[in-house]
């Protein structure tokens, strides 16, 4: 009987890029992010994406995912600049597969979050069935190999936020006071916050109210009043494997 396991990747989409503009179809959503799989052949049988909205309002856009491996220990070259066309290079021979999330895969019942799994919609929906095998001995743990995943937007994705710093953050406290838009519909426990200038704020311990956030540790940076705050992991990818 087969053995099943999952891998979760939370790639970084920098706050300044989220703040700057809407991503167009074909833009790089995130560049290569690595994860480890057991050494040998592993079959990708499903992929789920958790997609944050625009200022707390859900969004549904197609996404193309690409998989790659290193060659003789050399990682694949960049797909391109985030939120711009995929004009990168030096990854051609590293590619080992691709998967697609279609707009029809997204479920419609959540107000502030979009969730889709491959192959459960209609139209162009696809269920992946591919073998992913890495360049041997590249994983961070003994007996594991490293695989890379990157993604391109299939539509106009918009992660812009108007959750603003209300009281200048201080490195002597875990408290962050915000205004304009509710923190409750934009942020959650475990989110890593940066401001629009990419200053590190910290990891959320609790979202206490629409205007109050508590961090796991004291604020890492002093962010000025009126600066927009961002969760730098607006996309989560959960992959299902059969071993």
Task: Walk me through what this model shows.
- This protein is mainly β.
- The chain has two domains: 4-158 and 233-242; 164-227.
- Helix content is 2%, strand content 39%.
- The protein contains one helix and 15 strands.
- It has one helix spanning 15-20; strands spanning 4-9, 28-38, 42-52, 63-69, 95-101, 113-117, 130-132, 144-153, 164-165, 175-179, 192-195, 200-207, 212-215, 229-231, 235-242.
- The strands form three sheets. It has a six-stranded antiparallel β-sheet with strand order 9-10-13-12-11-14. Strands 1, 3, 6, 7 and 15 form a five-stranded antiparallel β-sheet that branches. A four-stranded antiparallel β-sheet has the order 2-8-4-5, with no helix packed on it.
- The longest helix has 6 residues, at 15-20.
- The relative contact order is 0.27.
- The model has no long low-confidence stretch (mean pLDDT 93).
Distance between the termini: 9 Å
Q: Which spans of ≥5 residues are poorly predicted at pLDDT below 50?
A: none
Share of helix, binned: under 10%
In N-to-C order, the SSE pattern is EHEEEEEEEEEEEEEE
Name the beta content range. Answer: 35-45%
| Structural domain tally | 2
What's the story with the biggest beta sheet? 6 strands, antiparallel
Assembly classification: single chain
**Average pLDDT, all residues:** 93
* Rg (CA only): 19 Å
* Arrangement of strands in the largest sheet: 9-10-13-12-11-14
The 3D shape can be described as: globular
What's the β-strand tally?
Answer: 15
Number of helices: 1
Which structural class fits the helix and strand makeup? mainly beta
């Amino acid at each position: 009987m087969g053995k099943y396991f999952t891998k979760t990747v939370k790639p970084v989409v920098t706050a300044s890029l989220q703040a700057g503009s809407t991503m167009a179809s074909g833009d790089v959503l995130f560049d290569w992010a690595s994860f480890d799989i057991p050494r040998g052949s592993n079959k990708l049988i499903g992929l789920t994406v958790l997609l944050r909205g625009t200022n707390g309002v859900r969004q549904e856009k197609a996404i193309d995912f690409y998989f790659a491996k290193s060659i003789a220990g050399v990682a694949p070259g960049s797909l391109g600049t985030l939120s711009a066309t995929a004009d990168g290079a030096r990854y051609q021979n590293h590619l080992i597969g691709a998967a697609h999330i279609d707009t029809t895969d997204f479920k419609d019942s959540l107000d502030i979050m979009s969730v889709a799994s491959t192959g459960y919609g209609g139209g162009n929906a696809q269920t992946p069935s591919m073998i992913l095998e890495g360049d041997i001995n590249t994983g961070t743990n003994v007996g594991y190999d490293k695989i890379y995943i990157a993604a391109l937007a299939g539509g106009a994705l918009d992660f812009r936020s108007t959750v603003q710093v209300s009281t200048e953050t201080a490195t002597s406290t875990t408290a962050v006071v915000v205004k304009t838009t509710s923190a409750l519909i934009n942020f959650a426990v475990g989110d890593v916050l940066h401001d629009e200038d990419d200053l590190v704020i910290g990891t959320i311990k609790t979202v206490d109210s629409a205007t109050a956030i508590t961090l796991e540790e004291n604020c890492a940076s002093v962010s000025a009043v009126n600066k927009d705050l961002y969760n730098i992991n607006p996309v989560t990818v959960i992959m299902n494997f059969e071993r």
